[in-house]
Amino acid sequence: MQEVIQNNRALVIGIIVFFLSYLIVHSIYLLVTTILGSVRIRKQIHRLQLSSYLKHHYYVPISILIPTYNNAKEVVKTVKSLLRLNYNLYEIIVVDDASCDKTIASLIKEFDLHLVDRPIRRVLETEAILEVYQTSNQKVKITVVKKEHSGKADSLNVGINIADYPYFVVLEDGARVDCDVLEKLAAPILEDDKVVLCKGCARILDERDQTVLALAQDLSYNRAYYTKDDPMEASLFCLFKKEMAIEVGGYDLVGENFELVRKIENHCQGSIDKYIIKSALNALCYYTAPKSFHSIFKQKKIWMKSFVRKFFKYGNSNIISSFYYFFYEIVSYLILIIGLGAIFIGVSYHFISIDVMVCFLLSYLLFNVVCTIILYLEMGRLLENQKSSIFLGKLLLATIVDVVFLGLVGEAAKPFSGFKLDKKKVY
Predict the structure, then answer these.
(1) What are phi and psi of 103, to 5 degrees?
(2) Is the entire prediction scored with pTM above 0.85?
(3) What are phi and psi of 79, to 5 degrees?
(4) How far apart are CA 342 and CA 351, in angstroms?
(5) Residues 6+ apart with CB under 8 A from 23
(6) Segment 185-220, tens digit of pLDDT
(7) In this predicted model, what pLDDT tens digit does every residue of 57-90 receive, in sequence order?
(8) Can you state the percent helix, strand and coil of the chain, rounding each to 5?
């Protein structure tokens, strides 16, 4: 064995050089996107200061879609929170995917819903709708749809079919939003009616009481939004134009926003008509964080299955983005395993210095930590969220957890992305 390794010394060193170059390229990408992200945030702050965020008397009609399955308690809380939104023209649509718990009964009791006979135009093909409930006793119209069990993607397509308004957002059952979030999401559309997609920002719920693990996930969401190093996390909260969503065929596979975002982006790039995609940096949606690494692993596995299938199905007209997503998302776990394996062999057989390798890898991790913290603090300036010294200590620990441990969990989930996915079990 030793003779074989010695005879392939040049190959081992070559793999190590490639792996270190791979990490250097990623660091350069992270540096550039961190700078660009900081510039975007500062421009947003400047724009808000100049405009004093003036209130307008025009509203974009928005439908809020909530797909749910066996989560009665959380979906009721979510609908209650949405009734407090500071917006004049919106509706709430809950699509129940044949839950086995008391989801429908809880919603009927809490919001005084009544069974209605409402014709629904099936612009997008979906499974059968069983019952439709509505109420007119609330601030806004609430519609609850019970349908055959067929998965989250089909539930969202049902919601699109039944929505009365030309724009829609999707919220998870259990998610929370700020009272003015619809106004912030709609602002780019009021400025230019060619906007077909506006991306908000996902954060973790209950920031003040966050565990280190929850804060680490918050950091991951924040970094993904500005650096786009995780396209799934960067697309968690979006405002879509209904007409465009129907034109590209709605949701399929697992019903994640990333799927629809990618389809719309590709459609806009290939269209002769001019469409615009915008971001609202301060439009926040708060999600409940998975409580364990196992839960995060399951979440990452589902996201990665969807990402891989969409990447190979739709690709990307931007060759740089395609290169990055292929090498730094899809096959990154293979490069990581081979690279670290080559380093281990190289150090064991004295091909390279262990001090040099440890110094390089620690520098790489430290650089990631610094960039992540910079973006998080810049976002704090935009949201006028001051950090205490105690919180900064916790922030540093959470950043290390994010960069090292959550990064490893994400890589560990990738080998499973090619397995068959049961769409009915995705919620």
Answers:
(1) -60, -55
(2) no
(3) -65, -40
(4) 10
(5) 360, 364
(6) 888 888 888 899 998 888 877 555 567 888 888 888
(7) 567 999 999 999 998 888 999 999 999 998 989 9
(8) 55, 15, 30
